[in-house]
Amino acid sequence: MIDTRTTEMQELISPKLPHIFYGGDYNPEQWPKATWQEDVRLMQEAGVNVVSLGIFAWAWLEPRPGEYHFEWLDEIMDLLHAHGIMVDLATATASPPPWLAKLHPESLPVTADGVRLSPGSRQQYCPSNHAYREAAQALVKQLAERYRDHPALILWHIGNEYGCHIPDCYCDQSAAAFREWLQQRYGTIEALNDAWGTAFWSQRYGTWDEINPPRAAPTFINPTQQLDWRRFSSDALLECYEQERSILKEITPDVPVTTNFMGFFKPLDYWKWARREDVVSNDSYPDPSDPHSHVAQAMSYDLMRSLGGGKPWLLMEQVTSQVQWRPHNPLKRPGQMRLLSYQALARGANGIMFFQWRASQAGAEKFHGGMVPHVGTANSRVWDEVRKLGAELPRLDPLLAARVPADIAILLDWESWWAVEQDAKPSQDVRVLSQILSYYAPLFMRNITVDFVPPNADLHGYKVVLAPNLYMVRDDIAQTLEQFVSNGGTLVMSFFSGIVDERDHILLGGYPAPFRRVLGLRVEEFDPYVPGQTNHIRMSDGSTYTCDLWSDVIDLEGAEALAYWTDDFYAGRPAITRHAFGQGISYYLGTRPEQVCMEQILEQVCNEADVRPVLAVPPGVEVVRRENADRSFLFVLNHTTSAVEIGLNQTAHNLLTGEEHSERVTLQSRAVAVLESGR
Amino acid sequence: MIDTRTTEMQELISPKLPHIFYGGDYNPEQWPKATWQEDVRLMQEAGVNVVSLGIFAWAWLEPRPGEYHFEWLDEIMDLLHAHGIMVDLATATASPPPWLAKLHPESLPVTADGVRLSPGSRQQYCPSNHAYREAAQALVKQLAERYRDHPALILWHIGNEYGCHIPDCYCDQSAAAFREWLQQRYGTIEALNDAWGTAFWSQRYGTWDEINPPRAAPTFINPTQQLDWRRFSSDALLECYEQERSILKEITPDVPVTTNFMGFFKPLDYWKWARREDVVSNDSYPDPSDPHSHVAQAMSYDLMRSLGGGKPWLLMEQVTSQVQWRPHNPLKRPGQMRLLSYQALARGANGIMFFQWRASQAGAEKFHGGMVPHVGTANSRVWDEVRKLGAELPRLDPLLAARVPADIAILLDWESWWAVEQDAKPSQDVRVLSQILSYYAPLFMRNITVDFVPPNADLHGYKVVLAPNLYMVRDDIAQTLEQFVSNGGTLVMSFFSGIVDERDHILLGGYPAPFRRVLGLRVEEFDPYVPGQTNHIRMSDGSTYTCDLWSDVIDLEGAEALAYWTDDFYAGRPAITRHAFGQGISYYLGTRPEQVCMEQILEQVCNEADVRPVLAVPPGVEVVRRENADRSFLFVLNHTTSAVEIGLNQTAHNLLTGEEHSERVTLQSRAVAVLESGR
Amino acid sequence: MIDTRTTEMQELISPKLPHIFYGGDYNPEQWPKATWQEDVRLMQEAGVNVVSLGIFAWAWLEPRPGEYHFEWLDEIMDLLHAHGIMVDLATATASPPPWLAKLHPESLPVTADGVRLSPGSRQQYCPSNHAYREAAQALVKQLAERYRDHPALILWHIGNEYGCHIPDCYCDQSAAAFREWLQQRYGTIEALNDAWGTAFWSQRYGTWDEINPPRAAPTFINPTQQLDWRRFSSDALLECYEQERSILKEITPDVPVTTNFMGFFKPLDYWKWARREDVVSNDSYPDPSDPHSHVAQAMSYDLMRSLGGGKPWLLMEQVTSQVQWRPHNPLKRPGQMRLLSYQALARGANGIMFFQWRASQAGAEKFHGGMVPHVGTANSRVWDEVRKLGAELPRLDPLLAARVPADIAILLDWESWWAVEQDAKPSQDVRVLSQILSYYAPLFMRNITVDFVPPNADLHGYKVVLAPNLYMVRDDIAQTLEQFVSNGGTLVMSFFSGIVDERDHILLGGYPAPFRRVLGLRVEEFDPYVPGQTNHIRMSDGSTYTCDLWSDVIDLEGAEALAYWTDDFYAGRPAITRHAFGQGISYYLGTRPEQVCMEQILEQVCNEADVRPVLAVPPGVEVVRRENADRSFLFVLNHTTSAVEIGLNQTAHNLLTGEEHSERVTLQSRAVAVLESGR
């Protein structure tokens, strides 16, 4: 449970700009100076108050090794400041210039197949490479010292989308760093042999230098080696980030830092990363052709809020209309960009920014939309929407200090995610995000807000904890959950949980060994399905539902059966169970039931645990509450293509229109209301 | 408009053989000498008058570096000549012998992933490799000097299917050649940085030696780098060709040269290549399992004629029955080989040749059919068809000097093709050939012949110019088209045209900037569809059609709307427009309408522009006219599986049967008539 | 015809254990010693009498180069012996320890693309590598000398699943070995050039050192080079096996040796391998989600029996319930493991073993089931089934000396299999196993047992020989088959047979040249279909069937037509023929008819040749006979999910239940009866 009573100051990204952030990536180096003047004029027209500067400017700032050119950046910083626009200044290290590859070919990343990648796109560096790291840090030092006192500087933007193309590198230097990391983790080679289970397949290592990254091999690679490689690779990039951060913190201790996340990005353990950020920021590119993409987007926004421990976060990148990197790139419909922007604010963002300010004329992203599109600002739907949103946002400044309360937490452990999606499993189709979404979507549809929590979380304050697939058990999570339920909480857990320890070794003693007590059952066998295969479950009320993916064959050990298998040799045995344990209750789902069944189960869970929707509204309408000590801000977002009517249970002030609503408010398609009231 | 009034001599491939060419690739080195005697006897039986010799004979001619063996070639040249068979003599450089790879491993080509390919198949050379080029040129010099005066020599066949497997090489020597090519193109590194837009993603180059081929990289590679790589790679192979050609032209200035093209072969800019050939030749392998393959084949034949500026060309390779390189290789049905051969003659060919004379007994092409099949000549359908065609062809010698007239030209620019099909685009499904075919097929079905023209073409003489997707604008094509319409021509252009300049930089000022005046409109946004998505357009007559792939959101600026969107937020805005400009008219299609709609639009275009079908015939019958100063030759080809009756509008002499037809002629399934009449 | 009258002794795998073998792979090195004690206790409980030991123990036996540790193996051997359990002792060379790769990086295998694979999984060795071979042989020598007289040693298990991941290696050392192999095969480079047909595509080799493995190349690689590479690669691994075997045979001449096969494993010519084994053993992992997998499994069991010339063989590996290496791994249903085990015994096995004894706690196979599952032995369906089978098997000891008679033989030639499935063929869909199965399945359904025979087989004693696709003709098979038919046998052959010699050169003279006489026909052309295409054939009785894949266009030369094409230009020409030749009859199928037509044809063939089903039973019931000099053992296996009733034609004693059956026996779903009677 996140404490919603904080002071306003804590919620500001920077006291220098006590407003909702609005702006985008600004790459003036792509344009002649004449355009710069037009840019600042149009920024003012659009209500832009902050831009991200220099994200890909390394080659411009240091065109030759050690030769820095900051004049143009000085000029643009001054120009922006003169027009009242603050700067989120990049460390510019996301993509090294071609000269680095020429001077240090070993800085280029290598694939698991041994292909050394080339310059020509971006991010072509090995995270463990010394030459890259030294050059990056030297640049960061220069930047920090030059702009430490610049009045436009409001935030540091370290790197950019860490790992989005190169989450790991298999070169020899990475191998050396991996070995060092392993030595720190395990101390002795014997401990590593134990942890990796090298007694199998004759993999026993005699010395550290026999160990390599999980490069292309004849068949399935040792799973713990794969897992440690994931851990190491996330840490290697985090080390790059940390090295830059410590320079900035030394020179500009008062300037907050961030790096832009990418939602549920599997390669990086964002729980570890977020602890080292002053503000969490996120890039979000939902697919406009997917009618349900706003659900997954809401989920990633809830993650961002949770990563920061409930603090406001920044939507660092979205697109005004269309991107260029999907095979097919439809545009956002009129109103859609505004609607999705308000969704971010509803779920805790204090800023809305775009990639990028002005659509490029050249390069690989020239068909990625901008706030200023190729056709210009005259008679442009895109520009109109940008301008109107910019004009509207200041009306929301009152909610800057408001937080988003939640009674339910979803357990998300990156390491378990890595482990369960490795190869050589009972089923390759147990996918963490899809399992989480199967819980999240029914709750989203009922307008029940959830937080995400890591395995070492303090669960105090939550009524319900969901553990969709907690394959790996570590960090005392078994004890934590047992205590949580024992103290009156409700736990819902799905199949293939509690299977291995942090070394990916089976927890013997009957699946799911560490949770048998709290769940009151044993899983004797699991039976994964082939694609297209289904089974059915019959609930105690006689209703029958389809399920797919997986069957657990369950023995009850205290739990009661809520549903039974109807088919196959385990017909009549329990499929879904409920167990009163201590003061609380734990549910177990031995399969993946169809959506309508998940809705029914979660409704029962919520009712029992006294978790209530924010507001009862028609289908397709999203409602989220932000609140501070004394005020409540209700966001109502109509994702449907028709008008809807919403009944209110108290009088409210619509921040966007200034209207007062007493009983009901009507929202057109893709329209939004932000209703302020007392708590 | 191609001038059809030329002298007969200009139309002959060589004055030494004033007949339709008939023959095939002949590889006597695969067979014992006993077979050679049978070969020439059977060639005479089949009416063969020319063979392509030595295509893959390098290892046979030069078994060890510098050690040439021409005795066997002397013998076979003499034997052929003694039997009245002329020789299209290959330079034999298409595939170097294994010793080259052993001596010069660096001559082997390298993929974008860094894999150095091995000998064992064919074409294993890097186009920019010096060792390969020197060895090839030395061999060509030897051949030219030895056979300069041989009476059988009628044509030089340089290389073979240039680039069919290795259109580019990513090795270090290629990288060096690429850099040299870039220096010639751009002069300074600053100019290259500007052209490539390296201000984005920190790609700015400080020195030439930092530049590499577009080798495997972390993500989308700089699009101008990719484009220049395409240009360079086409030029690198053209340089190989040129070096051989200049040797031949020096030693045998009077012997014409060719190299065999492969239809719409994307990697090579055949407009540049064809200018360096005396006669255009083509290899054509339509898929017998595709009932529409003859349409695409007609299109490639029209391209061959157009590449040579209207001059007769050679069908250098086709197969008698079945090939071996598709996953499934059905055979040509009885009559199909003859029908497709006449299609080539109808569209301007003066020769019909096969790969190969005798089906191989061994090797990777042994299941590729030959004129002499494995089963031999007795009771062989294949051999019967070969023999009968050979007996029939001399009756067509009267049309040797006849050309194919056309009122319509389709704009085809290889560089725009390369650019529009690169990655990071609004839609990956805008494919040039498919767009061209959507125009070509309706015209083909109405028996309206078209030429192809390059972007720097003289459009004088054409009534209609079609520009299916002219994404890239260069070579003054914008002015050329504006003038063409202004002077009374009709232009039809499709969506995603006029988007970039030759550097792949967006032409700002509202899409499609350089064509807005002639089209009378502006495209505010484009909305690519995902697969399966459609929209509909309503024509002014109320008829409604489905369209897919793409929607333009159009503002009219002088044009009138011919059709409107019915769905989505731009419903009611124009989808297809017509603009009277100067003396002419321009049409614009902001989407891909279904075939029947294309037919209706193109019918309207043709009627307005007074472009008439050659003859009105039943569906499935193809009619093409060749004509010289005073005679007209009407080819009527029945592609259906039933007999059809054709009404004639004048009396004609059937060259194949000798009959005179006054009112009508009946054609059996897959039958052909060639009807001669006065003009 | 396999002689079923042998002495009992010959049929025993080892006289030391005159029982059905029962056990599994045992990997004690993965577990603490405390578990060892529990293991032997549980083995006794389960009726285990033999285990395979040390399969992946190399790194444990020789943790550092040359430093051997046998103490633990001594201990476990003694422990097993003390509990009456015999040992199939592995040479432990299937997977070298990581130190080998560190010491000898060149021992790692290389792919055709040049990727050198890494340690981290298993089998990471180049078969031709000297360092690997020397280290392996040194270890084998140590093992053999240490355990030569150990009373538990009953069988040597050389390597493990040879080639399952690395069937070939493309490194330079392999290239050298390949050249040596080629020199031995061809003697002179001229002979190699002839055999490979290098006159095509300029591939002529001047010296041996120009030759390479078929590494990645621009296009189709020389087919004879590919074929010789297959031959060489099978031989290279066989040489590894042979080198170990000769050491064992020298030191322990009386201990039989085996290596575990993998059914129809294409890369290794098991005919050559089996000649060097004392007992054939097999690993079998049918997919439980495939309702027909028991048919293909029966086929592979018949192959195992045939590889050993009819001698009993060992089912070395199967799984108790589920594996982990498929994308989805459903479990075996109750009774299914038992049923499939009896299927092996029915088809000639004298032992049933599992991978592995105890399911691993770590590593890539931890989700591969074991005899002792993760949940333990209490309340475990899997353990119950294991225990019950172990208790039951000794009742079958009477059939140890019984063999499986068969009247029909299917020709299987690995070299032809390799050749016909290479690229550049008329159709890529002519797949040997699918063609064999199309013959095998109808016979299986009628309970007619077949043997497999190699191309150099003695066909004496068989009534019918089936040659589904004998593309390549070698080893006098043409004469052999002609003589077989001439002497009264029946031959059934399918299309695309008799096409090439052992060099993959076309056998000229009209397809299928060497079989035209015996078949009484000529194939003028073949017409492969594209996917989805069909044709129809009409039988002499007027019935019509669908066929797909392929049409031969056939001229009769003595044969009579049994069926005619109904469609396409060859409608009315023969599709299936029958030819009386000498005392016998040959059938030819010029297409792939639908299953019901295959059943009809094979029924006619069997009736004519007097081949009768073992017993008439309801569909889904499998019946196989084993017999010795005076007793017959009828296995009846119910693969359906319902009970069935079987009529018997003589009184029989059910070995499993002890019951006597006179007229009929009822079998529940997945139940088995083994009925003993006099012959």
Characterization of the model:
The structure is a homotrimer of 679-residue chains. Chain A is of the alpha/beta class and 679 residues long. The first copy, chain A, has 4 domains: 231 residues, TIM Barrel, CATH 3.20.20.80; 119 residues; 202 residues, 3-Layer(aba) Sandwich (Rossmann fold), CATH 3.40.50; 58 residues, Sandwich (Immunoglobulin-like), CATH 2.60.40. Chain A is 30% helix and 20% strand. The first copy, chain A, has a 10-stranded mixed β-sheet with strand order 11-10-12-13-20-19-18-15-16-21, with helices on both faces. A 9-stranded parallel β-sheet of chain A has the order 5-4-3-2-1-9-8-7-6, covered by helices on one side. In chain A, a hairpin with a 2-residue loop joins strand 19 and strand 20. In chain A, helix 6 runs parallel beside helix 9 and helix 11 packs across helix 15. The two termini of chain A are 18 Å apart. The relative contact order of chain A is 0.09. The N terminus of chain A is likely disordered. Chains in contact: A-B, A-C, B-C. At the B-C interface, helix 3 and helix 5 of B face helix 9 and strand 14 of C.
Give the topology.
Three copies of one chain form a homotrimer.
Chain A: H1 8-11, E1 21-26, H2 33-46, E2 50-53, H3 58-61, H4 71-82, E3 86-90, H5 98-103, H6 130-147, E4 153-157, H7 172-186, H8 189-196, H9 223-251, E5 257-258, E6 260-261, H10 270-274, E7 281-283, H11 293-307, E8 313-317, H12 336-346, E9 349-354, H13 381-392, E10 408-411, H14 414-420, H15 432-445, E11 450-453, E12 464-467, H16 477-486, E13 490-494, H17 516-519, E14 521-528, E15 534-539, E16 544-548, E17 550-556, E18 560-565, E19 574-581, E20 584-589, E21 592-593, H18 595-609, E22 621-627, E23 631-638, E24 644-647, E25 652-654, E26 660-661, E27 664-667, E28 672-678
Parallel strand pairs in A: 1-2, 1-9, 2-3, 3-4, 4-5, 6-7, 7-8, 8-9, 10-11, 10-12, 12-13, 13-20
Antiparallel strand pairs in A: 14-17, 15-16, 15-18, 16-21, 18-19, 19-20, 22-23, 23-28, 24-27, 25-26, 25-28
Helix pairs in contact in A: 6-9, 7-9, 11-15, 15-18
